[in-house]
Design a protein that fits this description.
By secondary structure, this protein is mainly beta. The protein has one domain: Glycosyl hydrolase domain, family 43 (Tachylectin-2, Chain A, 5 Propeller). The strands form five sheets. It has a four-stranded antiparallel β-sheet with strand order 1-2-3-4, with no helix packed on it. The chain has a four-stranded antiparallel β-sheet with strand order 5-6-7-8, with no helix packed on it. Strand 3 and strand 4 form a beta hairpin. The radius of gyration is 20 Å and the shape is globular. Bound molecules: 2-acetamido-2-deoxy-beta-D-glucopyranose (2 copies). The site of one 2-acetamido-2-deoxy-beta-D-glucopyranose has 8 residues, from strand 3.
Amino acid sequence: MAASFLLRALLLLPALVSAITYPPVGKCTGNCSGGVHDPNVVRRDDGTYFRFTTNGRVNIATAPSISGPWTYRGAAIPEGSIIDLPGRDDIWAPDVIKSNGVYYMTYAVSAIGSLNSDIGVATSKTMEPGSWTDHGSIGVPSGSFNRIDPNLMQLSPTSTPYLTWGSFWTDIWQIEMANTPLKVLSGQKPLHLEQNTTVRPQGRPTGPIEGSYQFRWTVGGKTYYYLFFSSGGCCNVPPNLAPPGEEYKIMVCRSESPTGPFVGKLGHSCLTENGGTIVLQSHNDLLAAGGQGVMYDPGVGSVVVYYHYIKPSVGYAYKDFHFGWNKLDFSSGWPVVVA
Ligand SMILES: *[C@@H]1O[C@H](CO)[C@@H](O)[C@H](O)[C@H]1NC(C)=O
Ligand SMILES: *[C@@H]1O[C@H](CO)[C@@H](O)[C@H](O)[C@H]1NC(C)=O
């Protein structure tokens, strides 16, 4: 009896060990759902957290901590983008950094399925609704990619700002910006950082990749540049859900230089060998996490990853998307979601 129980337990063990376990999603109160897409969170020096999200003319919500309570505050670009393309009133993927006392918000003007897109920038001294000045296109040259999902990284006022974007088509790209990051540095060519090299039926991406986010962190005296991105189908609804594992998930690649080459945890190239390593994928009542950003949060006392996700128990609709976050531990050199 006992022996057969033990045998069965041992036979079950591999299945149990390989099951994906994650700590619960971090607490969120206030405006945590109602269609939160591609969140970007910035903590102002006075301790107010600003959250910018896709759709409309860039939704702003504020809170005293990453877990809320979040209050919806209005639009960042109430007149719509001055970029004269379809989608200028339905702005995507806002991304805010502070440089030399000014907040720079890069954003995308596009439409579903369109490659006729552009990346713009707006500035503010406070991030409050009503304080943003739109400057329009930053001048990313056109190419085989789609100009969406921008992310700026500038590590000090004098250092080179790098913009990554992309792309769904041909995935993640990067370019150097001028020191005041309103324009691409003249003469710069886009650099291909990461792509899914899985064979693509009908020339379409099988595992489309988009929503990159650059983050520098020092681990055991060694500094790495981490390239987070979202891979898979972002927004499928029944009966057309992506097959398990093919829905949106958060992945990461790493390099010793901001411009690459990037590799995954097993050392595979992220440009030619599908190197990306999974950080957070669907489990329990969390589906299709993505549109992420990463920050050190002094409130939590840890690096956190924040993202949008679907709760199948609530619904799959675009308007139901939720805001989530978790702590990240980098002690192994690779980010791991921890309680
Ligand atoms: C919550 O935020 C969304 C945008 O992210 C907005 O459309 C919605 O009106 C907000 N809901 C409330 C109750 O403020
Ligand atoms: C590439 O796409 C395939 C097929 O959708 C998917 O299984 C795989 O996880 C993707 N790889 C990366 C690095 O996104």
